[in-house]
């Protein structure tokens, strides 16, 4: 007999590298919580760590640095367009064009030809970034935090 999903996941602990200083949204989280959709416990042991703590830990323990930091200056674990600038997507278009093409394809499927990116009250089309990524790299700030973070 197969276990019910909730019973099966009771023994799972999801460990994440979430840190509260990554964004205003993540700062609302906590070090230990129950994931409502997955129905699993989540533990973020680095939640209170700053970027300096992380860098020092890497140096002290002689750990390899994620290669994405050399390309994007961060790990870019989430490509939710709400938290990315046009320059972030342009950098992706230049460095990983095949991966970027997947975003352009997804944008094409939006109803009424909508744009996947809305930045500072302006619709930005990923297909336009794909045509001329250098323009977007030089005309927009690189992200790190979403534009709303400047408000909070």
Shape: globular
Give the ordered list of helices and strands.
HEEEHHHHEEHH
Secondary structure class reads alpha+beta
The radius of gyration is 19 Å
Helix content: 25-40%
* Multimeric status of the protein: single chain
Strand ordering within the main sheet: 1-3-2
How would you summarize what this structure contains?
Helix content is 36%, strand content 11%.
List keywords for this structure.
152 residues; alpha+beta; 2 domains; three-stranded mixed β-sheet; two-stranded antiparallel sheet; 11% strand; globular
Could you characterize the architecture of this molecule?
- By secondary structure, this protein is an alpha+beta fold.
- It has 2 domains: 5-60, no CATH class; 68-150, no CATH class.
- The protein is 36% helix and 11% strand.
- The chain has 7 helices and 5 strands.
- Helix 4 packs across helix 5 (97-108) and helix 4 (86-95) packs antiparallel against helix 7.
- The protein is globular and about 45 Å long.
- The chain starts with a helix and ends in a 13-residue tail after the last helix.
